[in-house]
Amino acid sequence: MATEVVMPQMGESIAEGTITRWLKKVGEHVDRDEPLFEISTDKVDAEIPSPAAGTLTEVRFKEGDTVEVNTVVAVLDGAAAGNGSAAPAAATTKAEPEAAVDTTPESPAPAPTATAPTPAAPPKPAAPPAQPEAPAPSPAVESKAPAAATPDARGTRQTQLQKPSETASVEELRRTKSSPLVRKIAKEHGVDVGSLEGTGLSGRVTKNDILSFIESGAPAPAARSAASPAPARDIPTPQPAKPGEGDRVEQMSVMRRKIADHMIISRRTSAHVTTVYEVDMSAIARLREQHKDSFLERTGTKLTYMPFIFQAITKGLRKFPIFNGQVSGDQIIYKRDINLGMAVALDGGLIVPVIKRADDLSISGLARAANDLADRARTKQLKPDEVGGGTFTITNPGVFGGLFGTPIINQPQLAILGVGKIEKRPKVITSPEGDDYMAIRWMAYFALSFDHRVIDGADAERFLAFVKEELEAGEFSI
Fold this sequence. Notes:
α10 crosses α12. β4 and β5 form a beta hairpin. This protein is 28% helix and 21% strand. By secondary structure, it is of the alpha+beta class. The strands form five sheets. Strands 9, 12, 15, 16, 17, 18 and 19 form a seven-stranded mixed beta sheet that branches. The chain starts with a strand and ends in a 5-residue tail after the last helix. The protein has three domains: 142 residues, CATH 2.40.50.100; 73 residues, Dihydrolipoamide Transferase (Irregular), CATH 4.10.320; 203 residues, Chloramphenicol acetyltransferase-like domain (Chloramphenicol Acetyltransferase, 2-Layer Sandwich), CATH 3.30.559.
């Protein structure tokens, strides 16, 4: 019996995924739950396991293609006895990603879900008829077809997901299918997403579409509100670089394109200011050296400097809650939970997994969470809700030797901390008697980038001074 493999929905606000690599070739055998292909979405890169055992008989999309969720991307044949025969199509939707929920503050209505075909006979075409063999049927057509009568646990959810599209106009459908990032950009620039011609699947408006429209200087199709920023002046667009003789040209990866988009959008959105403090980490270095062996034996994970920094930051965020906030139009949202994002470098890019409710964790809990997330980020095993919902981000360029940088804010957050290299340097120390002398201390530069729209320089100085004081006191329970 043939089993259809579909593009999973990696979070309720995710409407599409890009196939970055096929891990199996046509004709090869694949076991149930064995990684079949890799995808990249707005939230996470992940390996997608096979929903059943069998032979890969058909691949409908090549590497680099962007595919809507619930679209059939491949077909498996044979060795499906372990699956049961009641609902093979419904089973291919991969229950694990479906259970993950996107925790970003801009979660929209769920994207419309394509109706799963019944196993007994081909589905009856809706009016107007659609091509049943098309690899990526239009949800605007499929949403008019009756829901499958398969009596499985997903039936209720499928019906609920289809309700918004049953009476939606083309413009409303496009808004539903555009990503939260696209809608955020459109709202900030007073652009009606539904009036744009998208280049994505089924007319979906992509990030490149909205950015190209804004940069073109064309009049906004929707009236601009009083709180919206003034129209941007015409800015000359640089001519594309042309490769010369002997130059090597390489296409940007999906991850690199997304990083580029996020960085540009953040610069356009936030008024970036950076302040730098020098922090004496000698007390932390002594604690770490004293406890690292017993800590590893007790917890099974290494003790680094970062859990101490995480805990000092969470205390600072409780004392200065504006740094744990977000901007929504002319309102400031003070987030209840402290969810620390930690930048993890990967081959060809980076990803920011999130330690949820970090202020509830001890030093050992923070160490376990950080090391686990970093390890799974490098092996593409993160779930969508583990890279969403961050309220403050910490990046650590110091592991590569950098003294400090001026990091770009991770939207929609209001601040980001860059930790420089922790190394021994000479430091002027004043004794209790008032005498100055030179000493060798473990020092590091901390660079805080903050959004000057809502955070004043004085508050940034107080926040970073508080973090410095906590770390230099070294009063942590391990």
